C-alpha cells in the first residue's frame, strides 16, 4: 500500500509538471523557469498540508516558506493553516499582537482542490475576539456553541483552517502568536506515524499536487486573456479562501525594459487595509524580501489630489511608490481592499498608462518627490529586515512537520522528490 502511494505521489508530480509546462501563456525560457519554480511551490504546499493531517494531533503551521505560498502570497501577512475534523473539539489560543488585521476562516476542502473547494463555512475577525487584559485570546472550535468565550463553528464538512495576521505599519505592528490543541483526545501521547498514516499523507499530497497545478494554470489562462496594461474594477469577493469580505482588482502588465506603467487609484480611507502587488501568471508573487514588489496603504504616498500613483518598472524610477517587476516583462497586478465601511464603486477602478521610463517625472504630479539611490537602499534594507524579523520563530510547529516528514521518508526508505521542506528562516 505504501509503495503504491509513493508511486502515485511521484506520478502526480510529473502530471503537475506537464500541466504547468503546457500552460498556454508560457512564452519563453524565463516563463519555463518560473514554471519550474511554481512546481516546487505546489509540491511544498501540498506536502506541508498533508503532513499537517490531524491524525488526532492537530498542528497550526506557517505555510511552507515565508516567501513561497500558493496564490498571491502577500508580504503583509503571516499565514497559518491547520487540518481539523468537523467532529472534533479544539482550542486555538495565543497572543493577539498589534497587527491591523486578524482573520480565522474555517473551510470545506482545501482551496484550489476542485470547483467546490475552499468554501468558507465560518469565520472570525480580530474584532470578534474576546481579548484578555494581558493580550491573550482563546477560541473554541466545535460543532456546538460553548457556554462562554469566543467560538468558531465547525459546520459539517469543515476540514481545514486558514488564519491571517495582516500587517500594515511594519515598523510598529507586532506579531501575535497562535497554537491549536484538541480538547477531546482519546489518548495523550506523541504522534507516531504508521504505514497507514504515511500512505494517507502521500495520497493527500498527490491529489493536491495535481489539482493545484490545474487550478492555477486555468486561473493564469483567464488572466492572460485580459488586455495588457489594464485592471478590472474592484469586485466584492467572499469565501473561497480569501478574506471573509474583500474587494479585489486584477490586471495584467506588459512592458519593455525602458517603459514604466503608472497605476492611478483613488485613495479609499473607508478601507481599513489596502495593498497592491505583482505576481507571475501562476499567481506566484515575485520575490518580495529583497525586492519591493508590493506596497500597502501605510507604505505608499498619497498625492494631494487624493490619488495613489504607483510606478511599475524593471528599473528604479527614482520616485515613491515603485513596484519592481524584478526583470519580468509581463505579469499580473493585484489590488485588494479589506474591512471596507462602504462599497467600492466604479470610480475606484485603477487607471493605467504606459510612459517612457526616462520621462517618468513629466508624467507625475509636479510635487512628486525624488528618491535617490541611498534612500532607496535604506528603504529596501528596512523592508528585508522587517520581513525576516517577522518570520523568525513564527512557526513553532515546523519542527513537528519536519519530524513527520523524516518519519515518512524513513518508512518509504527514500527522500521525497522535489519538496524542499528544510529549515529555511534566516536570522535578521
How many strand units? 19
Cα radius of gyration in angstroms: 22 Å
Fraction of residues in helices?
25-40%
> Stretches where pLDDT falls below 50 for ≥5 residues?
none
Quaternary organisation of the protein chains: single chain
Beta-strand content: 25-35%
Count, helices: 5
What is the succession of H and E elements?
A: HHEEEEEEEEEHEEEEEEEEEEHH
Give the distance, in angstroms, between the N- and C-terminal Cα atoms.
44 Å
Mean pLDDT: 91
User: Per the principal axes of the C-alpha atoms, what is the gross shape?
Assistant: globular
Q: What class do helices, strands and sheet pairing give?
A: alpha+beta
The tally of domains stands at: 2
Main sheet specs: 6 strands, antiparallel
How are the elements arranged and paired?
Elements: H1 2-21, H2 29-51, E1 61-62, E2 77-83, E3 90-95, E4 101-108, E5 119-125, E6 136-142, E7 150-153, E8 160-166, E9 179-182, H3 195-224, E10 230-231, E11 235-237, E12 246-254, E13 259-266, E14 271-279, E15 294-296, E16 307-313, E17 322-324, E18 330-340, E19 351-356, H4 373-391, H5 398-412
Parallel strand pairs: 6-7, 16-17
Antiparallel strand pairs: 1-2, 2-8, 3-6, 3-9, 4-5, 4-8, 10-12, 11-12, 12-18, 13-16, 13-19, 14-15, 14-18
Helix pairs in contact: 1-2, 1-3, 2-3
Report on the structure:
The chain has 428 residues and is of the alpha+beta class. The chain folds into two domains: 2-217 and 398-406, no CATH class; 226-385, Sandwich (Jelly Rolls). The chain is built from five helices and 19 strands. It has helices at 2-21, 29-51, 195-224, 373-391, 398-412; strands at 61-62, 77-83, 90-95, 101-108, 119-125, 136-142, 150-153, 160-166, 179-182, 230-231, 235-237, 246-254, 259-266, 271-279, 294-296, 307-313, 322-324, 330-340, 351-356. A hairpin with an 8-residue loop joins strand 11 and strand 12. Helix 1 (2-21) packs antiparallel against helix 2 (29-51), helix 1 packs parallel to helix 3 (195-224) and helix 2 (29-51) packs antiparallel against helix 3 (195-224). It starts with a helix and ends in a 16-residue tail after the last helix. The relative contact order is 0.17.
